[in-house]
Q: What sequence folds into this?
């Protein structure tokens, strides 16, 4: 689990704030102090020379350690940026494909709707029981008992029923395509970052 108060996170966060030249400056100051202490060897007492030498090694080691940590953080940041860029590309491709599929569904629906005509309306009397069952199915509810005699005319034209059914199937195909696109997007995201 991610803990932003863990010592490792705090150290990495602080190192991420350091400019990249700081580790080299620390290591360089250790080297410069070491060289300076050897130049002024005769002026510095032995006990202080030993302490200065230890300090020089600590500074050089700290500088190189900081540089190594920063390199790891920079590599990690670059990897995250690469994954984010790839995720955006995947999203763009899936969305574009989804939009194209939605337009195809609309074109097919328009062609189907163009085939609907009113000339057959007089040949079919849509019964009330059909409308009741259809509306219940559309609302995902169980139809109640019939209010009238079976076979009673609903007063709804056959062409209107055809339009409703075509619209419902268009919506179904759009939602199905939306779900397929979402599943494709999730699958590709998992492949990118398992």
A:
């Amino acid at each position: 689990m991610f803990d932003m108060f863990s010592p490792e996170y705090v150290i990495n966060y602080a190192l991420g704030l350091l400019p990249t030249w700081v580790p080299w400056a620390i290591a360089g100051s250790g080297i410069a102090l070491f060289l300076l202490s050897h130049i002024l060897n005769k002026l510095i007492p032995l006990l202080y020379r030993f302490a200065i030498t230890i300090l020089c090694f600590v500074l050089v080691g700290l500088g190189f350690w900081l540089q190594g940590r920063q390199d790891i953080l920079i590599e990690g940041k670059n990897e995250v940026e690469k994954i984010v860029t790839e995720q955006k590309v995947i999203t763009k491709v899936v969305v574009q494909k989804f939009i194209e599929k939605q337009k195809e569904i609309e074109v097919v629906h328009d062609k189907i709707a163009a085939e609907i005509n009113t000339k057959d309306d007089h040949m079919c009397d849509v019964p009330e029981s059909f409308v009741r069952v259809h509306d219940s199915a559309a609302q995902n509810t169980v139809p109640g008992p019939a209010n009238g005699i079976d076979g009673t005319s609903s007063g709804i034209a056959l062409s209107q029923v055809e339009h409703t059914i075509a619209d419902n199937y268009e919506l179904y195909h759009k939602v199905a395509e939306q779900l397929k696109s979402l599943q494709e997007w999730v699958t590709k995201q998992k492949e990118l970052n398992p």
